[in-house]
């Protein structure tokens, strides 16, 4: 897939205020500081579409971007560590949950995981929550330029083994590096194939 256009649409905390169009959308979510904004900018080939920050928890709204005028990319707040109050975290959790449960235009989610870490309960719990609620998703491992190939392979295998304790079929996995543009074509081709299948169905 070639990205010909990527434009900001709207930010909000209420799923009812999300765009009313029926075009497919793909939501990106992960722990704070996982490199989500950098990944979105890499995928869209724009430096500042999603705002990056050295501070975890920068994204605090549901952010919609329309890509090629035919699908929406959704940037969701990170879960886990963020320098915000407990009450604010509860607000984030509520509208994230509402988004996943109520947003009918959602085709698939992408859960971002920092490849440098072994499986963390917060990531596994969120993945299992998506599965329990029958929400289609793939896993994107970020920051693959930080490790050697054999370490990447080992860390991915740890996640597979952890998930296989409860799963019979594993989700799709993508390995990425925003600085090296690794994984860009694979993710965009995946989205394109899903979109094409939606048109056929």
**Stretches where pLDDT falls below 50 for ≥5 residues?**
54-58
CATH topology name, in short, is: Rossmann fold
How far apart are the first and last residues' alpha carbons, in Å? 20 Å
Shape: globular
Number of strands: 7
Q: Mean pLDDT score, rounded? A: 89
Q: What is the CATH top level name?
A: Alpha Beta
Residues in helix, %:
25-40%
Structural class: alpha/beta
Count of helices? 5
How are strands sequenced across the largest beta sheet?
1-3-4-2-5-6-7
The proportion of residues in beta strands is 15-25%
Any idea what the CATH superfamily is called?
P-loop containing nucleotide triphosphate hydrolases
Determine Rg (CA atoms, Å).
Answer: 16 Å
What pattern of helices and strands is seen along the backbone?
Answer: EEHEEHEHEHEH
Commentary on this structure:
The protein is α/β, with parallel strands linked by helices and 201 residues long. It has a single domain, classed as Rossmann fold (3-Layer(aba) Sandwich). Helices cover 35% and strands 21% of the residues. It has 5 helices and 7 strands, in the order E-E-H-E-E-H-E-H-E-H-E-H. It has a 7-stranded mixed sheet, with helices on both faces. The relative contact order is 0.17.
Topology:
Blueprint (H helix, E strand, L loop, with lengths): L5 E7 L12 E6 L5 H9 L17 E6 L3 E5 L10 H17 L3 E9 L6 H12 L4 E6 L6 H15 L8 E4 L8 H17 L1
Parallel strand pairs: 2-4, 2-5, 5-6, 6-7
Antiparallel strand pairs: 1-3, 3-4
